[in-house]
């Protein structure tokens, strides 16, 4: 058995060697390609709340249809996450990395031509399936290439790309709606443009050496690792074994059930309040007495981008737990203040909403970090996919139920429910959230009751 080495040291005991220019360029490009998929996901979700009034008037939507169309992409992600993760673990990251975006492109173009509620619902479910698959392919792919000391920041940048896509889409929808320059078909179909660009750029992306190693394809894995991975990660590559068990069952084995529970609950409790409030921000703010609901929603999403930037800067400095746990409790207090003092002051409402948006974004950034780190290679795709699907149960339910709850019980009740979800997420995360900062991937994904052995210089030499 290879002797373990500290994850903070190299073979000589010094600091980890800097990435070569070639490796740095590859990691930058790969981050951009995966971030492009995240940007597109945020893009298709960001404008749906803006155009919902126009869609409702044009297609004569009932409240139920409003909720279903608002949640349709999230329902698709629920299906696509586990399916894409299962396929990525079975057939590889590389083929699925372009296939999923091709499917999304078909759905994006189809939005120009829908003229019935059910057609829009089906098309956006298809797009959601492709995006869900992209989560469970892209995050594992980047985690498996990234250097340990940069992995958290790189994965966090993917979440930033999501928020930027959401904000850009929201801003474009806001401008086009206010100026009456384009109809809802065009606003929704704008996602075609970034999709074509990212799809073409993804062609030729290499397979993950860690996935190849897990399938016993050692020579291919070593060749790709030498070309695209740093020295420390090449050593860590030899710490993983060939696949023994994979699939859904392994997620709920004694080794990983706590990990699966934590990642799923952490994610669902972050995104459920955000999607419920974000998708209908103009409606919520107007119900609270703010006439400029669209403008308030735009600022709300801008604050979320700021929160993600803060997380990107701090994640490798303060660690995962300090960024992931406290924001839940702060968000809960902010939403509770909105519920209890909704009619006291419009300024107070905005401060509370902005506080929620900022800290929720900081914590949500970890949703793009933890899943790629805490599952082993053979179930990393399906692990991310399952957590994605579980999170979208809450997100879709929140998006579907929010207009119904507001219509029946008022905004105050809706905000109290959202505050309760944030509080629950904080308690679970306090109990279960691991600290993975600086750990090599084999260490971060090792079962809690075991320590993953790392390769030594001799192992790497003999492997060559």
UniProtKB/TrEMBL annotation:
Keyword flag Kinase: no
Subcellular location: Membrane
Gene Ontology CC: one annotated term: membrane
Its membrane topology: Multi-pass membrane protein
Annotated segments matching region Disordered: 1-20
Keywords, ordered alphabetically: Membrane, Transmembrane, Transmembrane helix, Transport
Pfam families in the cross-refs: Sugar_tr
Entry keyword Transit peptide: no
InterPro entries referenced in this protein's UniProt entry, alphabetically: MFS_dom, MFS_sugar_transport-like, MFS_trans_sf, Sugar_transporter_CS
Molecular function terms, GO-annotated: transmembrane transporter activity
Annotated Polar residues bias: 7-17
The Major facilitator superfamily (MFS) profile domain, residue ranges: 30-437
Transmembrane segments: 30-55, 67-88, 95-114, 120-142, 154-176, 182-203, 260-285, 297-316, 323-342, 348-370, 382-406, 412-433
Homology family: Belongs to the major facilitator superfamily. Sugar transporter (TC 2.A.1.1) family.
The protein, known as: Inner membrane metabolite transport protein YgcS
Organism: Paraburkholderia caffeinitolerans
GN (gene name): ygcS_2
